[in-house]
Write a structure and sequence with these properties.
The complex is a heterodimer of chains A (353) and B (571). Chain A has 353 residues and is α+β, with helices and mostly antiparallel strands. Chain A has 8 helices and 20 strands. In chain A, 24% of the residues lie in helices and 37% in strands. The two termini of chain A are 31 Å apart. The chains are: A alpha+beta (353), B mainly alpha (571). The complex binds adenosine-5'-diphosphate and magnesium ion.
């Protein structure tokens, strides 16, 4: 059964449509990342789920229970949602233990039980011994863990995380990402994780919802998102590579098509029911290969980025100099800025629509 | 996100909205109604527009002389405070001078100590009766006029009193200065002096000008200094003119003093509006990038700068108050202070034996405590409900609350008399000539001092702290009690202490509103000085200073937990 159902939600701030007809269904225990550039409405979506913002249209349900629709709006304090704020939102006048135990005290749990739950949550995030500290005496990573422990202790079935790693040092991020995965194992909660960093989103989530301009563009597992982006926005925002304009000349029943691109014809993947005509083609670095002169198409190398054993080469096809393709080559390959290479398309994806 | 504290009103009950409207009505009643009533009395004394009284006031040569004197001493005082306040702000914010805390604390003292007390201290320091100067044989000849009486002396003390106001404004401006602009100038090879002249001061100019305007308004409204240094010399400013008219002719001349007050209020309002305009002109791009200011090393000049600072503070602070204490410790004027003559009898007299001073201490303490408690209790809910309102509402309420504080106290006092002279509608008796009229006036005058720390503290609370409590299941009342209150309590209490300090030392308002039995400390100090009882006056003043100092130190004890900028003397 779905843990969370969002249907046709809209929310405006003055002239800005922060959310525009957003629908999303999240299964119980699922980990969904919401990915999109800054200002696309990710935080607003979380705040609508938590009840801090009231949507103008659409509905939000937890399981069978409707918590927001045109007629009804359950207050945040009655939703039992856990939230890890970007600033962590630890109360500075309370100790770590008091912060974690607060939701339990609000629910009038006996003091002894509160103590036990708090100790368990502290142990789970590896902060045993820090109970009596104040938030100000903790490092950024530790504060993050206290915020997680608070959600753990309140046994929230749905936990929302709003760019939880944005305030951390780069070297801490990988560690905290692992902790969030561990948190998920332990709590079995449904997680909605908001980020503008695609590496985070693709790395940990079961499914990723890509947002832009207040709309959800595509919801899919990371690999599907990478291999079969549904529109140009998603394909540009997720993963490296390029989008080039071409024509579908022929379609096959097996989900492949022939496209005319860079002065030649190639066979690439396409959605069932793809029709002939002008299209955009998503070309990932691994879809390109360097070939001998006379095969493939000529391209001029614009940049070479050395990355150890391999190098990223950026090149513009002679037939379409506006497009910048990138591919990964063995660093031993003889390429240099300004030189011409010959490339072949070994794979690709026709963007539907 | 707007950055303001989350609306406590999403789904708020009707009762909470009603409470907000009642609070607003109360603020209007305390702050706006009296001033509107004053304006009405001045230009429409009988309910219809009648400029005769106002025009008559403007025609009087006495009024013109007083107005000219007011502007002259205010300009002199502002110029001095500008020089002192700006240079001190530059020194404290931009250099590595040591003991900044102690320096700032001392520099702020003249603002915290009542002006009449400062005036009395200086009178005791430099006059022919100076116990201190006599001891070293430097006192002016007996009978010669006091060197501070008149315009120059008034401007000097006004300048010293208002210097902290300029200092606070300039320091705020300097703190908002982006470090990289200064560093870019350094990288261009400019020396510190040149950077101060070409980068720092031009960018801080709106703050300097705003500080000057505030100091100007403060100088215009000051009563204690011209009362002590002007009245004995026949030098009248508008504030003392209003006082003398009302004290001399009673409530019969209310329309006339209302017209005078309106004139004074208009001059002050001009300054305030100019200040608001300057505030808006501040370059927001500068404010948005604010980082810590640089700390230039003074190098070998540091001991010299420190020496100059401490010597100046010694001269304007320690010496006058030492003179005051010396006078308070001798049995009578003319007796030299020595181990044999020193006595605490004057303190005993004013605290226990003399009914008027004993009563005054009690009155001032009760008034101050009452005003502090009521205003804190009013400010916390008002501030919290304002936090979730649109900026427009917040600005209007802030301006209304600021009026009675920023306008000269005399204006407020006359306005209060006009409002409360006649019996109150429901209860059927008049508050005039009771102590209650002073309390009402204090509630109006010091509302801002209590409200500002609360709104400051609330502004500094991350809205997600309130949201995290909602997520935890806590409802409105519980959130206020467990999350909001603990975070703003230190600031609210500090605001209450500021109210107490100011109300305890207050003279301007109570000088016009007191009656037999409801004297305040300021009033008895004034009467004792006018009656020539210098030693008792000095003893009262010393006690007032000690109370102020004690309160400042107590407030300091929990300063680390208040919001930034609540205690003005905190570095
Ligand atoms: N409380 C608010 N008032 C006005 N505009 C808002 C408010 N909250 C968000 N917005 C606007 O809505 C849009 C989406 O904001 P947000 O959800 O915070 O984006 P994201 O979290 O993806 O960066 C932005 O254009 C933002 O300026
Ligand atoms: Mg956001």
């Amino acid at each position: 059964m779905a843990a969370l159902t969002i249907e046709g939600v809209a929310k405006r701030f003055g002239a800005v449509a922060a959310l525009d007809d957003v629908s999303l269904t999240v299964a119980d225990g699922e980990f969904v990342a919401v990915l999109g550039p800054s200002g696309c409405g990710k935080s607003t979506l979380l705040r609508v789920i938590a009840g801090f913002e009231r949507p103008e249209r659409g509905s939000v349900s937890f399981g069978e229970r409707i918590v927001s629709n045109g007629a009804l709006h359950v207050a945040p304090e009655d939703r039992q949602i856990g939230m890890v704020f970007q600033s962590y939102a630890l109360w500075p006048h309370m100790t770590v233990a008091e912060n974690i135990g607060y939701p339990l005290r609000v629910r009038k749990l006996a003091a002894r039980d509160v103590g036990r739950e708090v100790d368990a949550a502290l142990a789970a995030v590896g902060l045993t011994g820090y109970a009596e500290r104040r938030p100000a005496q903790l490092s950024g990573g530790q504060r993050q863990r206290v915020a997680l422990a608070r959600c753990l202790a309140m046994k929230a079935r749905i936990v929302l995380l709003d760019e939880p790693l944005a305030n951390l040092d780069v070297h801490l991020r990988a560690r905290m990402l692992a902790e969030i995965a561990a948190f998920r194992e332990l709590s079995k909660a449904t997680l909605i994780y908001v980020t503008h960093d695609q590496a985070e989103a693709l790395g940990v989530a079961d499914r990723v919802a890509v947002m832009s301009g207040g709309r959800i563009r595509q919801v899919a597992p990371p690999a599907a998102l990478y291999r079969t982006p549904q529109d140009g926005v998603v394909s540009r925002f997720v993963g490296p590579g390029a989008v080039a304009r071409g024509q579908v000349t022929q379609t096959f029943a097996n989900g492949h098509s022939t496209v005319a691109l860079f002065g030649r014809e190639w066979e690439v993947r396409s959605a069932p029911g793809q029709t002939a005509g002008d299209v955009e083609v998503c070309i990932r670095p691994e879809d390109l290969a360097i070939v001998g002169e006379g095969r493939g198409f000529a391209a001029r190398v614009a940049r070479v980025l050395y990355q150890g054993g391999r190098s990223v080469v950026e090149a513009s096809p002679a037939a379409d100099p506006e497009t910048t393709l990138s591919l990964s080559v063995d660093s031993g390959t003889a390429t240099g800025i300004g030189r011409t290479v010959h490339l072949a398309l070994v794979d690709g994806w026709v963007i539907p629509e | 996100m707007s950055g303001a504290l989350a609306l406590p009103w999403t789904g708020a009950r009707r009762g909470e909205r009603v409470a907000f409207v009642l609070l607003l009505a109360l603020v209007g009643l305390l702050a706006l109604v009296p001033i509107a009533r004053l304006a009405q009395e001045a230009i429409a004394p009988h309910g219809v527009f009648d400029p005769a009284v106002f025009a008559g006031v403007l025609e009087s040569p006495t009024v013109w002389r007083a107005a000219r004197n007011t502007i002259v001493v205010a300009i002199g005082g502002t110029a001095l405070s500008l020089a002192l306040g700006t240079s001190f702000a530059l020194l404290v914010t931009l250099t590595d001078i040591r003991a900044k805390k102690a320096l700032v604390f001392s520099f702020m003292m003249p603002l915290m100590i009542a002006p009449q007390v400062t005036a009395l201290a200086w009178i005791n320091l430099l006059g022919p009766n100076s116990t201190l100067l006599r001891a070293v044989g430097l006192a002016p000849a007996p009978g010669s006029p006091h060197p501070l009486y008149g315009a120059a002396g008034i401007a000097l003390l006004l300048g010293i009193e208002q210097a902290p106001v300029v200092f606070l404004a300039v320091r705020a401006g300097l703190r908002a200065l982006p470090r990289d602009l200064v560093e870019a100038a350094q990288a261009s090879g400019a020396r510190p002096w040149r950077i101060v002249g070409t980068i720092v001061l031009p960018l801080a100019m709106p703050s300097v000008a705003a500080g000057a305007m505030l100091a100007f308004v403060g100088c215009i409204g000051n009563f204690g200094i011209p009362a002590f240094l002007g009245i004995p010399a026949g030098f009248t400013v508008l504030v003392t003119l209003i006082y003398q008219r009302l004290a001399g002719f009673g409530t019969g001349v209310l329309s006339e003093v209302a017209a005078l007050s309106l004139l004074l209020a208009l001059i002050a309002l001009g300054g305030l509006l100019l200040n608001g305009w300057l505030g808006r002109r501040k370059d927001v791009r500068v404010a948005a990038l604010a980082t810590a200011a640089p700390a230039w090393s003074l190098g070998r000049a540091r001991p010299i700068a420190e020496g100059v600072c401490w010597f100046a503070l010694f001269f304007v602070l320690a010496l006058p108050f030492a003179a005051l204490a010396a006078t308070a410790l001798v049995p009578a004027i003319g007796v030299a202070l020595g181990p044999k003559t020193a006595t605490l009898a004057n303190f005993h007299f004013v605290l226990f034996d003399y009914a008027a001073t004993r009563r005054a201490f009690l009155n001032s303490a009760s008034l101050a405590a009452g005003a502090a408690v009521v205003l804190v209790m009013l400010s916390v809910p008002l501030g919290y409900s304002l936090a979730g309102r649109p900026p427009g509402v917040r600005q209007v309420v802030g301006f209304v609350a600021e009026l009675p504080y920023a306008l000269p106290g005399v204006v407020l006092a006359i306005a209060m008399i006009l409002c409360l002279l006649r019996p109150l509608p429901i209860v059927g008796f008049s508050l005039y000539s009771t102590i209650w009229i002073i309390l009402v006036a204090y509630l109006s005058r010091f509302l801002l001092l209590a409200l500002r720390p609360v709104t400051n503290a609330l502004r500094q609370i991350d809205p997600s702290l309130d949201e995290a409590a909602r997520m935890s299941g806590a409802r409105f009342a519980r959130r206020v009690a467990t999350v909001i209150m603990p975070m703003i309590a230190p600031s609210a209490v500090a605001g209450g202490m500021l109210v107490f300090m100011m109300a305890f030392n207050e003279l301007t308002v109570s000088a016009l509103l007191w009656s037999a039995g409801s004297e305040t400390v300021g009033v008895v100090l004034f009467s004792l000085e006018q009656a020539g009882d210098a030693v008792s006056a000095a003893a009262v003043a010393v006690i007032a200073v000690l109370v102020t100092l004690a309160l400042m130190l107590i407030a300091n004890a929990f300063a680390s937990r208040t919001a930034r900028g609540v205690l003005p003397w905190q570095p």
